Automatic annotation (TrEMBL):
UniProt xrefs under SUPFAM superfamilies: LexA/Signal peptidase
Domain Peptidase S24/S26A/S26B/S26C residue range list: 130-239
Superkingdom of source: Bacteria
Protein name: Putative transcriptional regulator
UniProt xrefs under InterPro entries: LexA/Signal_pep-like_sf (IPR036286), Peptidase_S24_S26A/B/C (IPR015927)
CDD domains per UniProt: Peptidase_S24_S26
Length: 274
């Protein structure tokens, strides 16, 4: 499984620019934290799997790889970045969020009676998406860094295909603002890469001004007015939940990412009582 390695964007560009002509330590001399963090990640992988195993995975020359991991000689920038990419390390620029969905593998998987005698589906057709909490109509209680559970998702489903930055939230037990479309207890899948409510009426996970962590599911409409953008959050159950309108520049520091967490692309609903 890959990992997360944070990079300074400037240092990364310097590393690629210098290529094989200079060592990584030279290329990123103004940002040694980047190289140290990346090398620490590589060493930890070697400790977990053995140096020989990791060396074979990246196709490195033994002397070059062992000297690099041992700290006696820095690798070239091209070699080092190639190793990280081959091992599945993710490059995260300052201000970016790492992808939080995970690949899965089947371990003693239990099969329901309908699947008895059938082969297990390929694990690569699924991934695990973190469910981070509840989303309601009032102040949100959805800390993105506190994973409550995981949801297994079929990656080839049309609405999910090619999406990779997903999280799941549960509609809070007292939230009825999106009834009858979404009800308390429903689980909603959110694409954090899609934050552009260009067409009025799209369903998004959104935040009220000043809200930290928490969020709510609403339909969203926008309107450009006098150099600003008006953002309206409105509910399916509009009779009991009037719409709220905010100014992007005044209420969200002109940053759409502070208003919109992501587009809702899929939902699971309990229909036993319907």
């Amino acid at each position: 499984m890959g990992g997360i390695v944070s990079y300074s964007e400037q240092a990364l560009k310097m590393s690629f620019a210098f290529g094989r002509s200079r060592s990584v330590s030279d290329a990123i001399r103004d940002d040694m934290g980047m190289y140290s963090e990346a090398m620490a990640w590589l060493k930890a992988k070697c400790d977990a799997e053995s140096k020989a195993s990791v060396m074979r995975q990246v196709g490195a020359a033994k002397a070059t790889f062992y000297k690099a991991v041992g700290g006696t000689q820095d690798p070239s920038a091209a070699n080092f970045l190639s190793w990280l990419e081959t091992l599945g390390a993710k490059i995260v620029f300052p201000g970016d969020r790492p992808e939080i969905a995970r690949d899965v593998c089947w371990v003693d998987a239990k099969v329901v009676p309908a699947g008895d005698g059938q082969c297990l589906p390929p694990a690569e057709s699924y991934f695990a998406v973190p469910m981070v909490g509840e989303a309601g109509a009032g102040p949100g209680i959805m800390p993105e860094d506190e994973i409550k559970s995981w949801v297994l998702v079929y990656r080839h489903q049309h609405a999910i295909r090619f999406k990779k930055d997903l999280l799941a939230v549960e509609i809070a037990k007292d939230s009825t603002s999106m009834v009858p479309l979404l009800r308390p207890g429903d689980i909603v899948l959110v694409d954090r890469e899609d934050r552009k409510p260009e067409k009025a009426g799209g369903i998004f996970l959104v935040r009220e001004p000043g809200q930290e962590g928490g969020a709510m599911v609403k339909r969203v409409a926008t309107k450009a007015v006098d150099g600003d953008l008006l953002i309206t959050f409105y509910s399916e159950n509009a009779a009991e939940n009037p719409a709220d309108t905010y100014n992007l520049r005044v209420d969200y520091d002109n940053d759409i990412n502070k208003a919109v967490v992501g587009r809702c692309v899929w939902a699971w609903s309990d229909i036993t009582g319907k």
